[in-house]
Model the fold of this input.
Amino acid sequence: MATPLFQFRSNLKGDKVIWAVVFILSIFSVVAVYSSTGMLAYQQKGGNTEFFLLKHTGILILGWALIYLSHLVKYTYYSKLSMLAIYAAVPLLLLTMMFGSSVNDASRWLSIPYVNIDFQTSDFAKLALIMYVARMLSRKQEQIKDFKSAFVPIMLPILIVCALIMPSNLSTALILFMTSLTLMFVGRVNLKYIFSLIAIGLFGVILIVVILYNSPDKGRIGTWKNRVLTFTGIKEDPDLTFQADQAKIAVATGGVIGKFPGNSTQRNVLPQAYNDFIYAIIVEEYGMIGGIFLILLYLILLYRGIRIATKCETTFGALLGLGVSFTLVFQAIIHMAITVGLFPVTGQTLPLISMGGTSLWFTSLAIGIMLSISRETEKNEEIPAPVVDGAAVNNATNNTGNNEK
Done:
């Protein structure tokens, strides 16, 4: 008689390696969040260190439920949902800019009435845009080289969504923009159009630099200006470099094998140690070995995403799998680069590890979509090929010209 655990495992379809990577990252998350929230517990909960452990574990459990449920949905349904999602994302981003909760002069969170839950609309917009771009690229393959009928309908939502995210979260907008460009390249969009989009992006960056240089040290623009100037060494301000300095100390004192779980000292002085700088605490406690192991896990996730895309028989599924995996890994790389001082400080969490709520849930949905694509791919591989004149015919030939279904 099958045990409940065996029955649960048998219901986990899709790429087993991705399931294993997500499980290991979840274990890292629980241990790292528990270790890094000690000071926060004393500041907010009177020393109840178990509060944030239980809260984060509950969020992770719900995240796993979202992965499980979303991986059961056939991925082609996400193509239809993408239109509703992109139409909802733009007004939500506008509402966040006008009425959202602000932290460090950045309006990133929108409160849901009656349930008292805040969520970052940029996390929803990221997933919505990736699904939309994958859908449009797959549907426009016959006229993909045309500017008016193919490039413009894809380009405009990318520019609009990234522009709305940029004022409150520049790094997220850049990650989303790079992911969209990658999908357009894979989707065979004319290279001169892609380069024109890159030129628009570079012009926007130059414009931001000029505005920063000539702007007063106030508001969100002032925050960007101070971060860039201190990162480049033009301006020296210990208060502005405090987070980056403490993160570097954590990484440096971790050594090769680390101080072992629970023995971090920088967690008591490093702001946002449980969120924006959790990789620093992981390296401090697990050393260079733990840090490299974590990098390998994300690279494995990227590899499996690419592998799923190459095996998928539809254009939409391949592009969606690539887009989701690229976004998650790009975000992880930027988080790690910020921790070791390669990028200016900005608010990027480490996917599936940092303490969070809705951001972790949207990441879980993205993982579920990847697993949904691999589940359908495996199902198609299990179907025996028809035999014609004694020779097996590849199922893929039956899907020629079918980009979505």
